[in-house]
């Protein structure tokens, strides 16, 4: 099932929506975002983002009151030897899973990175038990490159992540 959605660049006015999204245990539990995020921190981050950082939001029902139901962002590495590489991350609101939002967000992030930022390699880390996300990434051309054991602390336990990357065609 696909939902009517608008994917766009995040604006400072999206701080409340991103704060709400990343306040969900499922969002911070599936990413490296800390629990109990500050809305002020989101506002500061969105007020003047570095040019090598892109933050996209998925807005449901764009004709009505904006409702941020997902986010995807990437950071292009600044080391001269790695400027063709970016690290990507994303989250979708728990009550919006399995509606095609992740697919639309991921495709928009890939297109933006590859077609407008010259990214040839997109990298990500995904928790090894997040089979739905791994399947999504694989459908979009990401390949498993390794397993990082005890990579991150999640709810008091060190958990493994799968390292994945996508090489741009051509």
Question: What's the CATH class, please?
Answer: Alpha Beta
The proportion of residues forming helix, as a percent range, comes to 25-40%
Please give the count of helices: 5
What is the average per-residue confidence, as pLDDT, rounded to a whole number?
89
CA distance, first residue to last residue: 32 Å
What is the 3D shape?
globular
Quantity of strands, as a count: 7
CATH-level-4 superfamily name: Gcn5-related N-acetyltransferase (GNAT)
Q: List low-pLDDT spans.
A: none
Strand residue content: 35-45%
* CATH architecture label: 3-Layer(aba) Sandwich
Strand order of the largest sheet: 1-2-3-4-5-7-6
- The succession of helices and strands, N to C, reads EHHHEEEHEHEE
Q: Please state the CA-atom Rg, rounded to the nearest Å.
A: 15 Å
Q: Briefly note the CATH topology name.
A: Aminopeptidase
Helices and strands, with pairings:
Layout: E1 5-9, H1 15-22, H2 25-30, H3 39-47, E2 53-60, E3 67-76, E4 85-92, H4 101-116, E5 121-127, H5 131-139, E6 143-154, E7 157-167
Parallel strand pairs: 4-5
Antiparallel strand pairs: 1-2, 2-3, 3-4, 5-7, 6-7
Helix pairs in contact: 1-3
Write a brief structural summary:
The protein is of the alpha+beta class and 170 residues long. It is built from five helices and seven strands.
Structural account:
With 170 residues, the chain is an alpha+beta fold. The chain has a single domain, classed as Aminopeptidase, CATH 3.40.630.30. The longest helix has 16 residues. It contains five helices and seven strands; from the N terminus they run E-H-H-H-E-E-E-H-E-H-E-E. It has a seven-stranded mixed β-sheet, sandwiched between helices.
């Amino acid at each position: 099932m696909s939902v009517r959605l608008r994917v766009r660049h995040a604006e400072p006015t999206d701080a409340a929506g991103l704060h709400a999204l990343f306040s969900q245990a499922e969002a911070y539990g599936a990413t490296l975002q800390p629990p109990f995020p500050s809305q002020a921190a989101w506002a500061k981050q969105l007020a003047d983002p570095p040019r090598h950082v892109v933050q996209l939001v998925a807005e449901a029902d764009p004709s009505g009151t904006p409702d941020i139901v997902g986010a995807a962002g990437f950071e292009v590495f600044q080391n001269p030897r790695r400027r063709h590489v970016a690290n990507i991350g994303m989250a979708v609101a728990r009550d919006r899973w399995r509606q095609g939002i992740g697919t639309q967000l991921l495709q928009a992030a890939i297109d933006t990175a590859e077609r407008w930022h010259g990214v040839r390699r997109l990298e990500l880390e995904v928790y090894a038990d997040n089979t739905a996300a791994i399947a999504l990434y694989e459908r979009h051309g990401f390949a498993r490159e390794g397993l990082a054991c005890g990579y991150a602390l999640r709810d008091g336990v060190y958990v493994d992540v799968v390292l994945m990357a996508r090489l741009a065609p051509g």
